[in-house]
Amino acid sequence: MEIHKTSWPMRVLVFALFLYLLAPVILVFPISFSGDQVLRFPPTFWSTRWYAALFQNTKMLNAFWTSVVLAAVVTALSIAIAVPAAWAMTRLKFAGKDVLFNLFTAPLLLPTIVLGLAILIVFASFGLLATMQGLVFAHLVVTLPYALRVLAVALSTQDQACEEAARTLGAKPLTVFFRVTLPMLMPGIVAAAALCFLVSFDEVVITLFLTGPRISTLPVELYNYVYNQADPLVAAASVLMILLTLGIIMIVERAMGLGKTFVK
Amino acid sequence: MRSGELAVLLLLPIAMINTIGFILPVLNLARLSFNKVSLGGGIENVFTWENWFGLLTDSFYLELVFNSVWISLAITLTTLVVSYPIALYLHRSSGPWRTFLTVLVISPLLTSAVVRTYGWIAILIDDGPVVSAIRALGLPVPSLMFNIKGVFIGLTEILMPYMILALMAGFGRLDPRVEEAARTLGATPARTFSKVILPLTLPGIALGCLLCFVLAVSSFITPKLMGGGRVFLLATEIYDQAIVTLNWPLASTLSILVLIVFGAALWAYSVVLRRLD
């Protein structure tokens, strides 16, 4: 039932504002097919030369693979660490639970520029700068709060009658967890994993502090590239990143509905 | 195994990462803001208020802090103005259309800040679509890139999804029947908005403004890439001090200053919220 008749001026306004919101993301698509040497819109002619240039740019390719491996490792570790933690937070009784939960999700409240600097200074003395281990650890600091939050919500809204039934029928605690709780948690795990992957894959500020010529991620390489020159190469890379993100969003949408994951 | 022991075991990994990657680094940052750089470039482990006094007496840093806060406030208000109609429209729509539009709002959020900033560079660059359009209209051509204008336009757009989501979360109290009542009782649309819709959505507005202000003050990628080295804000200065000048004590002091600004924003938010209740 439509109670509100939205007036035409309001519709036009909302459309214009949506255009503003989506303009930069939409615009990189045509620019990526530019044939020009420099950044220009609209391009004077079309080509796929920048995609070809991108796939010949070993720096970018290496950075891309570093990002993929990093995001995959971070995602796997996040789930492995956050599932037991979320289970303990929602199924066990112990003192100081709220304090701990707030502490574990607190890294999200800190601006990444401050967290990046803080981690840089500590990692410098551990010799973890510009290493894969260092990057994995730093990314875990920001992905774990997301994973913990999503999984804790999923576990606390889960119907516990099935667990109860399994227990009364004589199943051991571990059996209950692996045969009942975990399968029922699968949508939550998929959503948390996708979120962790995206956060890690897109993370740039903290990573900027911790990378160097030896090891770099795709967002950091793109940042460095744009900082020095602006040509359509970055547009081609951006299109591929957006498509990858879209693919992952579709997985989440399938698993539990995007609106539910983010709006709640 | 007792419940408490099991909890300790299961929470140990996340607690370790939280301690080593978050608590220790932040405490270290606070400590470092009271250290100073020695002549050799190392960090002298002495307690000194030098950084703090230096910061509060140097007109460059005072201006930096003032500028950052002022620009962030202006960006926050602009973001509110351009986000409110979208949030209201989304709140009133329903079904698959609403889901589709919500996905559109969230999708920029999941796109790297570097990509979106690059998109804005392409739009605002000299001879870009916006400048060309203005020139075609015969108006004086503004320079939109590598100054605060570009940063303003880009950052506003980048913060919009956060504002829209915060507004929508706060719009729960806005029952369409209340508006309906105001209209049937003879209120004009403008009066309905100012007397009914706006007051009811103030909690959402406060939350959205807090979130966007905090994100604007600490924004780094957009000012750095679109400012062309001419826009100095707190976050870009922290990075330059840490990476270029290698003055970690000063960078730490500036970071703690950002956290103090955060604290002030949170305090203002709680005051506003208490007034609203």
UniProtKB/TrEMBL annotation, chain A:
GO CC annotations on file: plasma membrane
Record family assignment: Belongs to the binding-protein-dependent transport system permease family.
Q: Where is the signal peptide?
A: none
Which spans are transmembrane here? 12-33, 64-87, 99-130, 136-155, 176-201, 233-252
Mode of membrane association: Multi-pass membrane protein
Q: Name one GO biological process term.
A: transmembrane transport
> Could you tell me which residue ranges the ABC transmembrane type-1 domain spans?
64-252
What keywords is this UniProt entry annotated with?
A: Cell inner membrane, Cell membrane, Membrane, Transmembrane, Transmembrane helix, Transport
Q: Is Membrane found in the keyword set?
A: yes
Q: What is its main location?
A: membrane
Q: What lineage does the source organism belong to?
A: Bacteria, Pseudomonadati, Pseudomonadota, Alphaproteobacteria, Hyphomicrobiales
**In which organism is this protein found?**
Mesorhizobium alhagi CCNWXJ12-2
Tell me the protein's name: Binding-protein-dependent transport systems inner membrane component
